[in-house]
Amino acid sequence: MVGKTELMDAIAPVNRGLSARADDQLAIQAAAARLEEYNPTPNPLQAQALLDGDWRLLYTTSQELLNIDRFPLASLGSIYQCIRLAENRIYNIAEIQGPPLLSGLVTVAARLEPVSTRRVNVRFDRGVIGLQKPLGYETPAQFIQKLQVTPKLSWLQGIDFKVNSDRQSGWLEVTYLDNDLRIGRGNQGNLFVLQKMP
To answer: Would you state the CATH architecture of domain 2-196?
Structure first.
């Protein structure tokens, strides 16, 4: 699909948005908007098999996410958004690359509340920050399973804390969805482009 190739070409050189200049952002916004017009899945929340799973972030305008790259002696690794519709849960996982044995992880979990066939309200309720090794982190799917069966991790593993969901809430709208690409827009005007993990 031409529009998809155009979007992928536009986001390829900007390192998820970290090195995007204003003209890059405009080109990416325009390419995303053109692709959204041809969304093959107009009711994405009813397409559970397509939407469910682990998605790797390719591009975002969210400074909240991109600012994670400002950790000293570290750089932002892969960012994942993992959707579990059966439990109405979403997990955002950011890997932090650092010196050997000091690679970290920032995770937030939220409850989803569908409000239309395209939009969900998101209420964050749990956060986990720590080093990948003590946390036992291997993959997003494996770590989510661990969080699902462990209500609170030991402080020896990392910092596991409750998030005030009244203060940390918003919405996310799925504006394009196919077998391996998802475009979403958030309540703060942010754009998210994600690729489904096999």
So the answer is: Beta Barrel (2.40)
